[in-house]
Amino acid sequence: MSKESSQSEPAVERAKDRRWLLGLIGLGILLLVCEIGVFEAHIHDHFYWILFWLLISGIPFVLAVWLVFRRRAFPGKTLWVVFIGAGLSRVFLLPLDPPRLSTDIYRYIWDGRVQGSGFNSYLYLPVDPRLTALRDNAIYPHINRKEYAHTIYPPVAQMFFFAASRVTQSVLGFKTIFIVIDLVTIGLIAATLRAVGQPPERVIVYAWHPLPIFEFAGSGHIDALMICFIAVALWARVRGKFGLAGFGLAGATLVKLVPIVLLPAFYKRWDRKLPITFATTVVLCYLPYLWGAGARVLGFLPQYAQEEGLQNGARYYLLLLTDSILEWCGVVHDMPPAVFNGLALALLAALAVWALFRQAPLGKENDESKDRWISSAFVLAFVFTVLLSSYYPWYYSWLAVFLCFAPNSAALALTLIVWPLYRSLIEQSSDDLFRFESRVFLPVFAVFLVSWIVRKRHPPIRTDKI
After folding, report:
1. Entry pTM
2. What residue spans of 308-429 are helical by DSSP H?
3. Orientation of helix 3-43 relative to helix 78-93, angle to 10°
């Protein structure tokens, strides 16, 4: 090989890297263009155009993810491009006020205001005459269920509402705090990816994902705080800091109860720190509210379960799908929702045992198995989310965290095509709900089946630890 050719090879590689990086930047710009479309549709209250641009934004996002995941080595500025794109995409949607697809943020601000005035938010409805002095024209009129629902949010969420409301009581202010929290989450995910031997650039799955961007920066959902606590738990668990991992997982659970399903995957047999810290955190955080509210500390949760169809089975898409298939086949049946609940709990229990024993006990792990718990956590989160089949799109955002570590085409598809579920919030009949959920879940099931067949016929070559 001549000296000239040997010197030209690095230059050729640098040129390829520049083109690749420019391609990634171009896709980031396209994602921002889609967000401009979302912004314009939002401020003009064009509901269907909002959904259109949110669906379209998945195209440059998927291409960007594909570019990143097909590489192991990256140009030096790639991570900065990902971080800057994450920040810009969130700041673009920050001015959306009022949020048009959800009013939850008004309850957050109200709960913080109530606590700041010395009242226990679990005890008083927003319409209670004793809270008349707290009402205004900016927040109070937009609170959902204010005539009959006490707050539903657990203690850590309430503590956040109180702390944030001491700084700001505006939608813009709360959303700014959520953006800061979300950027912390991105940093923690990148650090955790590096710690498990994966490229930190893979944080792009969460950082550029349209779902958390819109739901947290656009609508301002408390799930951003829940996911940040999960990221803390992931970061701590990877480093063997089991006490901090227990605190992070407890914090996530006390923001929104669903992360408790991750406990079997995070727990390592023979470890005491994680379960003790988890239980202690739960008790200590509930105590200040239990002191005055007692059993009412559950707030609207029992009524919420009934209103949302968790008791009569109207919420569960798999149950509705089973009923529809059997009815189409002419089969006379009568499956009580309690049977479905029992089967779902049995499945989750089996997965919990599987996740618990899939990893080696404390002190006996090896390089091949020490990080299996992350993929186990993803399986628990994915199965639980599908079983719950919420018609609130932001409930699916947490899956994007685990997709940074354990890529899965079906779960990725689910997080990108949930937007039609917003139509079910407008057309509330059971037939409409089933129809809109079918447009989401049937394609996801198809993607899952096809990817499973492909993997069986052509097993992938494992290049990662997970």
Report:
1. 0.93
2. 317-328, 337-358, 372-388, 399-403, 409-416, 421-426
3. 10
